[in-house]
């Protein structure tokens, strides 16, 4: 699923290819960075590496850091996006092993690699780099709410980790395939690693959140589309702040609601029920209308990865009939996804 994503001239250049580190993860949703890179940048990944207790796999070959280095890897990417963005104690020895094998360490976690004494010591000893992707640019202004030229699409969600990045990447690819001038705008660690640039929105101080979104998608020609990767959910008690700032600053003309139909509660916050798609559409229009009164919903992206093809097709058709808007799984593609693209561009 490698997408034709351009990289700005001043974007970071990460040492590639990658060895994907899965830590001791048991929940696939918390390994979304590894899965995102394996799915959208497979040509830049040589394998995966986990420690005892790891119960997930991207499907790439399992390798030790030394084996990956021999296979051409130049860095180990921490493929885990856990709650709080922390480095597990059981990971440290494995990360040191990777540096001793000749790999730099790339991380998009909140905790900086160089704040871990054992990692900082190993980096000095081996001469390897500790690269923190989750570092917003300096000088971000506060938001202005000023209407910008060009067109924008934002993916929003009923929760976190259910397909906003994949949906944005798939829509961007579809736009480009139709000959439309479009850019994918990354707002999270995995998207930045795929695109080679962007702003890690959840690392931006709240007062500057909408300002960061404004500079991420600046004025553009009237026919140009910025397809912006969404973050979190405005219904998520932990992450609503970044979602709202991104919504106001992005000023989307169109948004697509991303939803996992098998999920009933907020991931990691099981005391909170998942909102309905209708609730997300309604609140996104009411809040997003503050900076773009013309905001509209282009349709729904369903994550049907746990369903059979027949089950997925039946569910998408039923939801299309119930909601009266296009409903598709962008990864499955087909006529339903083409209809969603048409609706977004209408």
UniProtKB/TrEMBL annotation:
Residues 58-136 form the D-glutamate N-acetyltransferase-like N-terminal domain. Pfam families: DUF1611 (PF07755), DUF1611_N (PF17396). InterPro entries: DgcN-like (IPR011669), DgcN-like_C (IPR035086), DgcN-like_N (IPR035402), P-loop_NTPase (IPR027417). It comes from the Bacteria. Residues 142-335 form the D-glutamate N-acetyltransferase-like C-terminal domain. PANTHER family: DUF1611 DOMAIN-CONTAINING PROTEIN, GLL3100 PROTEIN. This is DUF1611 domain-containing protein.
